[in-house]
Design brief:
about 280 residues, alpha/beta, Rossmann fold, 2 domains, 6-stranded mixed sheet, 4-stranded antiparallel sheet, 10 helices, 10 strands, globular
Length: about 280
């Protein structure tokens, strides 16, 4: 395995059942490359959130094991795992409770037992990074939904997790707010944070993820670099009848694959111009 293939986390034959229900995860084996964004894609109920909650110990496998940076976390307390794995819930109101934004961001740091000077420094850095400095004294509950999502993300990132899980970050946001939020996340990834993006939005995944894992009914259907997964999109039509538009257009114009699997308009244009130049 090359350094670029280093895994931040790995699930080995993970099974999980909620009490009294059919298995929610069925033999999942999946590696999450360090420093990359991996999108967990699938319909509601496919097992995406259940899988992600195994990364920080909120759920434990019925069978199989979860490795974090090569170590089995089966007996590691959730509180200790929170220092390595940050989890931002789909609904920010499920994790915001403090009277001010400053106190919200500081809460996790206090639980880590950090000195007051270190807490102050980290809170200040997080507020600045997420453009929340002017709202430090505001109550999170009175902020708009997109700002509450940003506060939730800042409070998790202040603890400097090496792996960050985002559960459906685009839900409740327009595309502009989603791009602003994901731009902040992409900045963290470029600094070395491993990101797990739980989403049913293939467009969001193609814009921000480098790897993709597709789940359906608790099973892993496809996993790998995002272009490789999308190249095999015909095998996923039962899950996603409509493929992402740019890869689909590229495949329609060049069935031989000459246009590749473009993930942005810029990539598509560059590939198309190069193809036209060869055929001229």
């Amino acid at each position: 395995m090359s350094p670029s293939d280093h895994l931040a986390a790995e699930l080995e034959d993970v099974w999980f059942s909620y009490e009294g229900h059919e298995p929610a995860l069925r033999g999942i084996s999946l590696g999450l490359p360090a420093g990359a964004c991996t999108a967990l894609i699938g319909h509601n109920g496919s097992g995406k959130t259940t899988l992600a909650k195994h990364l920080n110990g909120l759920l434990r496998p019925s069978r199989g094991r979860v490795l974090l940076e090569g170590q089995d976390i089966g007996r590691v307390p959730v509180g200790r795992l929170s220092r390595t794995v940050g989890y931002v819930f789909q609904n920010p109101d499920h994790q915001l409770f403090a009277s001010t934004v400053w106190e919200e961001v500081a809460f996790g740091l206090r639980n880590q037992g950090l000195a007051s000077t270190e807490i102050g420094q980290r809170v200040g850095e997080a507020l600045a990074a997420f453009a929340l400095e002017s709202l430090a004294g505001a109550a999170p509950a009175v902020l708009g939904y997109s700002l509450r999502k940003r506060v939730a993300l800042a409070s998790v990132c202040a603890m400097r997790p090496r792996l960050l899980v985002l559960d459906e970050p685009s839900v409740g946001l327009d595309w502009r707010s989603t791009r602003q939020l994901m731009g902040l996340v992409e900045g963290l990834r470029q600094q070395g944070t491993t990101v797990v993006l739980i989403t049913h939005d293939v467009r969001l995944a193609t814009r921000y993820a480098q790897h993709m894992a597709v789940l359906e009914e608790g099973r892993l259907l496809q996993a790998g670099p995002i272009r490789e997964v999308l190249r095999r999109f015909d095998a996923l039509r039962a899950v996603f009848p409509s493929p992402p538009p740019l890869p689909a257009l590229a495949a329609a114009l060049a069935p031989d694959g000459a246009l590749g699997v473009p993930l942005s308009a810029e990539e598509f244009y560059a590939a198309y111009v190069q193809l036209e130049g060869r055929e001229a």
